[in-house]
Design brief:
This protein has 232 residues and is of the alpha/beta class. Helix content is 32%, strand content 24%. Helix 2 packs parallel to helix 4 and helix 4 runs parallel beside helix 5. The structure holds adenosine-5'-diphosphate and magnesium ion. The site of adenosine-5'-diphosphate has 12 residues, from helix 1. InterPro entries: AAA+_ATPase, ABC_transporter-like_ATP-bd, ABC_transporter-like_CS, ABC_transpr_CbiO/EcfA_su, Molybdenum_import_ModC, P-loop_NTPase. One of its GO terms (molecular function) is ATP binding.
Length: 232
């Protein structure tokens, strides 16, 4: 399979080369999509609704298979969905983070250490015993991220994680993820349509017509997109 484990010598933590993806209906979504995210980078992926952002992330997360192209992602990979209620399955914060570790068959003390470390990293340790239903949307997203940290994920794929959040929680989450990426040497690809979030990333990609139409400095891309939307 082309999308497989890569070693550190490979070109990026996330590497996508000439991906083509079509739904069985015949709808072409990705048409020669290529991008690279270097280890340690916090990158954002922008594009209109339906431009294929979620499709690309699902391919990178191993949830969909493209018809053509090559890709590689440094494992383990953590996925954060737009709606945390689709992702959190256990009754409490600590139990949910621990649940993500079941496949690893770790000793109990190691599980406890991993859960506490992950919750502390995203400032949720004091909520370890809190029921999931008693959390805000932003806190739920932080639990989902803690799950990936506990699994020692190298790469985080975040699909519009702030779409359901109010503006304060939105900025809080983007800053926390940026800090985590920088402090722990992670790599993140974050999908958004909210231009204000571009202020916090290293680099951005614009997906249009199934491929990366523009990429680079997020401030330049932000101004370009702001001018575009104000001219219509
Ligand atoms: N399960 C599906 N079956 C068929 N078409 C789909 C499915 N999921 C998404 N699509 C279509 O694929 C295109 C790309 O969707 P998506 O990757 O979700 O875009 P984005 O995340 O950029 O909004 C859209 O036209 C969407 O309607
Ligand atoms: Mg989407």
């Amino acid at each position: 399979m082309p999308g497989d484990i890569v070693a550190a010598k490979d070109p990026g933590a996330i590497w996508v080369n000439n991906l083509w993806f079509q739904w069985p209906s015949g709808l072409s979504v990705l048409q020669g999509c290529s991008l690279t995210v270097q280890p340690g980078e916090f990158c954002m992926l922008l594009g209109n609704n339906g431009s294929g952002k979620s499709t690309l992330l699902k391919i990178l997360g191993g949830l969909l298979q493209p018809q053509e192209g090559k890709w590689a992602v440094e494992k383990p990979v953590g996925f954060v969905f737009q709606n945390p209620d689709h992702q959190l399955v256990m009754p409490t914060v600590g139990a949910d983070v621990a649940f993500g570790l079941v496949d690893e068959h770790l000793p109990l003390a190691e599980i406890r250490n991993r859960v506490d470390d992950a919750l502390a990293a995203i400032n949720l340790l004091e909520m370890k015993r809190r029921p999931i239903y008693a959390l805000s949307g932003g806190q739920k997203q932080r639990v989902a991220i803690a799950g990936a940290i506990a699994r020692h994920c190298h790469v985080l794929l975040l699909d519009e994680p702030t779409a359901l959040l109010d503006p304060d929680s939105q900025i809080d989450l983007v800053k926390r993820v940026r800090d985590l990426v920088k402090e722990r040497g992670l790599t993140a690809l974050w999908v958004t349509h909210r231009l204000v979030e571009l202020d916090y990333c290293d680099r951005a990609f614009l997906l249009e017509a199934g491929r990366v139409l523009d990429e680079g400095n997020p401030t330049r891309l932000k101004h370009h997109l702001q001018n575009k939307s104000s001219s219509v």
